[in-house]
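Follow-up to my post from last week.
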Amino acid sequence: DQQVKQNSPSLSVQEGRISILNCDYTNSMFDYFLWYKKYPAEGPTFLISISSIKDKNEDGRFTVFLNKSAKHLSLHIVPSQPGDSAVYFCAASAGYGGSQGNLIFGKGTKLSVKP
Amino acid sequence: GAVVSQHPSRVICKSGTSVKIECRSLDFQATTMFWYRQFPKQSLMLMATSNEGSKATYEQGVEKDKFLINHASLTLSTLTVTSAHPEDSSFYICSAHSTRPRKNIQYFGAGTRLSVL
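User reply:
Got it. Predicted complex:
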């Protein structure tokens, strides 16, 4: 049973518009969430994270929103750029501040930003 | 900072041979490293957690005798796929857990594409 779900396998957005990538989770013990970006034939690159004590974290064009009651988080990219085209993975872990840092990943959403 | 190097990037081998994959943290010390496997259109699946100086912890369903993990130093972990078979063909990715420059972040290598003929 998937604990982290990204229900949209792909998303296409026009350059300059907002990209919204969604992620749902089922494990209420998760208290730390991350977004990774992955280009083909490369490993994932850390993008942004949020702990469960917050509901929003912003870093430049990237903002992550967390709705704990709905067990839902989203990544907003605005404005979207062609270079943002990649697969985005949502990941979650339990025990922020712990030493292990085990992550559970979603299946990813492929974002295509068209010029 | 926080660069993880994984080598080789691609391996093609015959069935029955063993393949070793190296994962190095280049500019930080990683007491914990992770090994993942990714099938096409699937998520990254954690195979095992590797702690420096101790035995790896394997996830359920992962054969520890088939996937040998060694974490002999704070900057190097290796995964050896023993007696590889075609069903072991996959994309293997390592990551290193770091508390610096960012707390509780895993930094990933570029992955190894294993093809077993």
